Amino acid sequence: MPRPSAAGPAERAPRSARLAEVTAGLGDSLGVGIGILPLGVALGVLVVQAGLPWWLAPALSIGIFAGSVELLLVSMIAAATPLVTIAVTVFAVNFRHVFYAFSFPISRVSPGIPRAYSVYAMIDEAYATYVLMEGDRLSSARIVSGQLAMQAYWVVGGLIGVALASALPEPIEGFEFALVALFVVMTLDAVRSRREVPSALLAALAAAIAIVAVPDNALLVALLVFTALLTGRFAVSRLRPAPERAAEPGASELGDPADPPREETDRA
Length: 268
Known about the structure:
- The protein is an all-alpha fold.
- Helix content is 69%, strand content 0%.
- It has helices at residues 9-49, 56-63, 68-78, 83-94, 97-100, 113-120, 124-130, 140-167, 178-194, 197-213, 218-239, 242-246, 251-254.
- It is globular.
- Mean pLDDT is 79; it is low at 250-268.
């Protein structure tokens, strides 16, 4: 009876190269995981403290995997928010993901299940990790393994949070403010780095209008009003002359696609 032959060098080389790419993808996810894991823990704690079944934490992390939207959904589900409001809110919050596909290196991912999963798992952290990486360093195994690891951080963090909340003798007062605090920090960081003070003021105006006009559905109405205000601001900015647009706060950092490149005039 012939004995099966061992894998030759030609077969071992692709296998070892694939393992190296998977290892690189796990390394890509490590820095992201440091931030994702605590948010997963917060998700698990919120699920238990909201009186929802524990399995909702891993279910959200596996079935939705949308970062901050998962934290938002816990509050909305606990408050018995109408399904239409939940759907529109999630659509508004995650609408930015539509534009990720224009620059994400999805063509590097193998067609079929790997590419379908990569599209599904295209969270902000995965986009930021791979969109700036050189093309010759990208491969299907590296991207997919990195995204799988990022999702694993969410799932494991949620389970840790469930275990912690179940072991606590009393609920942590004010822990539900974690989501609000997250968005406050993100807003302050965006305003400081891009100097988008007008956008922050428009957001405050939209929230005030929604709270006064429709207090029962303030979040949904605020998102819609804010979207309309941002659209109006963009339209008005396109009507201004180029010098006025360049003088706006943040214009020097973000640039203006309608303006031609300027040469350096200040030289030592």
